């Protein structure tokens, strides 16, 4: 995999987040980058932490969505995987402590669902300019596109055009799968790994 | 007359009616219901109308009425 074009994705894998993740994967591919995500391969024999480390070390870019650091109901555990993997990416993974100079230019985007919520939950990150998508797929498209541009890449397509293209992509996939005798439920429940195959 | 697919797509400012292949939306409505109602005329003209959910997936594929 090409290091300079790879983006490690660290985000929730729950059903509620799945539409955001699919949108994120589409935009990354559309802008010419390679999404690297632990769901891309499923080998029960592989130690998860080793897989994460390999993905981080093979990606110049990282997108970390910390939307699940707040529980929604009593007795619900908040999710620690995302801040943990962000820590790996910032530190051990690479950017500041790895002796290999290629990691010095590593670029990271931190996403949150609610503005300033990350600073409240993780004050060590008060320096960070987190971007908020408000749980909206369209806003996620705009934030990722802006971040890519801010890192020196030219993007001709507007945010609204990218968003519309994602919607049209979904309709083409829908039509194809209906013709293959999938039901609407089959399409709605399509796994991220299967979805990746159509990008 | 050739048929096109007409999409109803969520926008930050409302719901857009956009013909596939066009660069810009035909019109943006405040509510999804308004957009769906206004898209009916495209169905009468022989076009499919595809209603998207706010996440971009497909909610309803309304076949043309011609």
Would you kindly provide a written description of the structure presented here, covering whatever features stand out?
The complex is a heterodimer of chains A (199) and B (66). With 199 residues, chain A is α/β, with parallel strands linked by helices. Chain A has helices at 18-30, 48-57, 81-90, 117-121, 137-150, 159-179, 184-188, 192-196; strands at residues 6-10, 34-36, 61-65, 107-112, 131-132. Helices cover 42% and strands 11% of the residues of chain A. Chain A has a five-stranded parallel sheet with strand order 2-1-3-4-5, with helices on both faces. In chain A, helix 1 (18-30) runs parallel beside helix 5 (137-150). The longest helix of chain A is centred in the C-terminal third of the chain and has 21 residues, at 159-179. By secondary structure, chain B is of the alpha+beta class. Chain B has one helix and five strands, in the order βββαββ. The mean pLDDT of chain B is 93.
Features:
A: 199 residues; alpha/beta; Rossmann fold; 5-stranded parallel sheet; 8 helices; 5 strands; B: 66 residues; 5-stranded mixed sheet; 20% helix; 39% strand
Topology:
The complex is a heterodimer of chains A (199) and B (66).
Chain A (H helix, E strand, L loop, with lengths): L5 E5 L7 H13 L3 E3 L11 H10 L3 E5 L15 H10 L16 E6 L4 H5 L9 E2 L4 H14 L8 H21 L4 H5 L3 H5 L3
Chain B lengths: L4 E7 L2 E6 L7 E3 L2 H13 L3 E5 L5 E5 L4
Parallel strand pairs in B: 1-4
Antiparallel strand pairs in B: 1-2, 2-3, 4-5
Mean pLDDT of chain A: 87
Helix proportion range of chain B = 10-25%
C-alpha termini separation of chain A: 17 Å
Number of domains of chain A: 1
Count of discrete alpha- or pi-helical segments spanning 4 or more residues of chain A: 8
In terms of quaternary structure, the protein is heterodimer
CATH topology of chain A: Rossmann fold
